[in-house]
Amino acid sequence: VEDMLYLYSQATSNGQLMLTASFGVTELHAPKLPADAAAAALLRDADTALYTSKHEGRNRVTSAADETSQ
């Protein structure tokens, strides 16, 4: 991902524009919830992981599984 972001950086009249990316990921194992509740739980967990990535620095991927193991 970092290499790809570097390729898309741009020189501007105000200096170099650098791109960064943070991701939060999650997965669902054998859903025991109705589909709408499972989807809401997936989005909530991925969102929490995303904000952890943003808080910990640029160009990071955080798994929701990492969040629950802390």
Give an account of the 3D structure.
- The chain has 70 residues and is an alpha+beta fold.
- Helix content is 47%, strand content 20%.
- The protein contains 3 helices and 4 strands, in the order H-E-E-E-H-E-H.
- Strands 1-2 form a two-stranded antiparallel ribbon.
- Strand 1 and strand 2 (15-17) form a beta hairpin.
- The longest helix is centred in the middle third of the chain and has 22 residues, at 35-56.
- It is elongated, with a radius of gyration of 16 Å.
Question: Which class do the helix and strand fractions yield?
Answer: alpha+beta
Distance between the termini: 26 Å
Instruction: Characterize the main sheet.
Output: 2 strands, antiparallel
Morphology call? elongated
What is the strand content?
Answer: 15-25%
- Count of helix runs: 3
Strands of the largest sheet, in order across it?
1-2
The counted number of beta strands is 4
Fraction of helical residues: 40-55%
Summarize the structure.
The protein is an alpha+beta fold and 70 residues long. It has helices at 2-7, 35-56, 64-68; strands at residues 10-12, 15-17, 22-25, 60-63.
Notable features of this structure?
70 residues; alpha+beta; two-stranded antiparallel ribbon; 20% strand
Topology (elements, then pairings):
Layout: H1 2-7, E1 10-12, E2 15-17, E3 22-25, H2 35-56, E4 60-63, H3 64-68
Parallel strand pairs: 3-4
Antiparallel strand pairs: 1-2
